[in-house]
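Dig into this one:

. . .
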Amino acid sequence: MHRGRVVFGAMDEVVFGRPASEALVEQLNRLGTKRAFLMVSGTLNRETDAIEIIRRALGPRCAGTFDAMPPHTPRAAVIAASEQARAANADLIVTVGGGSITDGAKAVQLCLANDVSTPDDIDRIRAGRGGSPQPTAPTVRQISVPTTIAGGEFSATAGVTNEKTKVKEALRHPLLMPRAVILDPWLSQHTPEWLWLSTGIRAVDHCVEGICSREAHPYGDAQALKGLSMLAQALPRVKADSGDLGARMDCQIGTWLSTGPLASGVPMGASHGIGYVLGAEFGVPHGYTSCVMLPSVMRWNKSANAERQVLVAAAMGHPHEDAGGVLDAFIRDLGMPRSLREVNVAAEHFDHIAQAAMATPWVPRNPRKIEEPAQVREILDMAA
């Protein structure tokens, strides 16, 4: 008998297949907001007209633009964006860009609500603070227009990197989830191929670890299996033809579905846990962390969840094949890196990575029990 609890998040709408500039105007009208602060990709802002088109559509309701969020959302950049949003008297944050920008805006929401004005102040609002008071709820909320497909815009958690410790830390509050997400396939054509495809594998990782979890349930399965099928078909189509808008839309919807398990309480596993360390300490893009880790994690886990891995291979169009092998070939065919060596992480660091990964939220909930760093080291050796 299944048991569990599904909590529906604080998102009002997902709009898909519409230009962002049009959909954003409708969202501001719906919400009655008048001072939208844009947090956007620096490349989009400086090298394309995409952001200027949005600014013109918003007109006087655009209260400012921040375009300097580095990868992995460092604390200092979060504070810089918060100060600009505060000075602009923003009543809404609009993000246009990848996951680091989306997470940055989530963090800014908490900074504005809790008078956080220095990088060290973020200690007051981060998760895992023992008996500290809960942070004040955000009142300035967010609308997200993602240009990558890792799926962070569908969660109420932000990952922010502490530059002092080189640890990616979680900020959580139910109202960090965007009020609305706008999936615009036209805008996504500006995203570099490597970034689109690698973040697509991050979405695949969400599906796969959700399906393979020992805490999986039918609600999460239904979304993850459909999402995985859509991603498995659509990502190669985008690689073959970057202008295939239908394939881009399928990738975006597949990514939305990929977040179903996590949003409904199903934990991720070792691929995500190890990925946190590779990103925060070694600067590996988070899509690449899934490319290099997921097949090895699947092979290491197979003795504990072979029956669930059968579902993964079938959803990807390869029934009766080994899921780890299917994923390995799929990622290779997209031209993505498949080893730690290819992302410049040497074996001399593996013991440290294994130790650090034990402290992440997901390694302890991996479907094959991980009780000591030596077991994480086994996975890293497989991915070397």
User: Anything to note?
Assistant: The longest strand covers residues 92-97. The chain is about 50% helix and 10% strand.
